[in-house]
Amino acid sequence: MTEQNGRRGGRGDGASQESDINERRELRRDYRELIAETKRESSELVRPDSDGLGNLLERSDELFGQVIKLPNRAPTVEAVLDAQFLMAASSLGCQKAKKIHVDNKFDPKDFVQKLISFMECRRLGIEDSEIEEEHWATLGRGAAPAFRSACSFQFMLGTFEREPPRKAARKTKDANAEEQAGPAIVAKQLKSKDKDKTPTEVTSEEVEKMVAILHQVCKTRGDGTYVPISYFDLVINPESFSQTVENIFHLSFLLKDGHAKVYLDNDDLPVIVPCTPFNEEQEHERVTKKQVLVSIDMDQWKELIEVFDINDPLIPTRPEPPHSNGNM
């Protein structure tokens, strides 16, 4: 019994496969006929008034619906034939669209004839009859749905008697009046000796004073060289934190111009000594310049005063500039 059932099952599978193959062959034949018809009737299909291209697309949709329902293997060949037809149809559709002529020109005479025909007052080609009031009412009732409200009458530029704007007369200067008034007198500006100095001039003066102070506080040896002093002893002002910052700022110009030299001693503390500005025309060796950023805050300033036991400033305390408190 088992062998007989197997034979019957094998015969059933073979019959279904043969039916599937025959159905695929019919679909391929229909697709090829559709493509051939499209190419054969191409001149007729591109006409603007022809509906043949649409009918062919409907037939291709029906065939593609059958392709989707095919069982077993993927319908590769049928899908390729469908793509070939769509390419040919899209090319013909593009040609058909280019041949469509749209005339948007407005012909007043044609429009008038259509209005007269709509109002039914006279036939086309008859010009001797008059348009009665009831015919105009017919036209109004036909055009009423296109307007929600009546159009109001408005002026584009105000009243019709609008006058052009008048140009204002330009006033000319009287040269004789200026000559009679005489030359303009400019008031003299009173200058103060201290207030007229720019920040650059004030800085230059302080730098020159610092050079003289540095030469005074540094002792000379027998060979003419200077004994260095502590950098902090020179710049720290125990009486004013702000003037300590100013001293550090002014001293940077001495180092930049070569009037002083800063280096570390045996205890790795910075010391300073005056020197002669370097001149490259007189010396053969090159001078190596280094830049260092110096930062100091209030706590460090107090600590330096205590560590180095600074009681009096080497650079005299400068008088503070008067501050305006807003009182006259």
Automatic annotation (TrEMBL):
Its main location: nucleus. Residues 1-25, 164-202 are annotated as: Disordered. One of its GO terms (biological process) is DNA repair. It is found in: Nucleus. Residues 164-176 have a biased composition (Basic and acidic residues). Component of the SMC5-SMC6 complex, that promotes sister chromatid alignment after DNA damage and facilitates double-stranded DNA breaks (DSBs) repair via homologous recombination between sister chromatids. Component of the SMC5-SMC6 complex. InterPro entries: Nse4/EID (IPR027786), Nse4_C (IPR014854), Nse4_Nse3-bd (IPR029225). The keyword DNA repair applies. This is Non-structural maintenance of chromosomes element 4. Residues 82-130 form the Nse4/EID protein Nse3/MAGE-binding domain. Keywords: DNA damage, DNA recombination, DNA repair, Nucleus. One of its GO terms (cellular component) is Smc5-Smc6 complex. It comes from the Eukaryota.
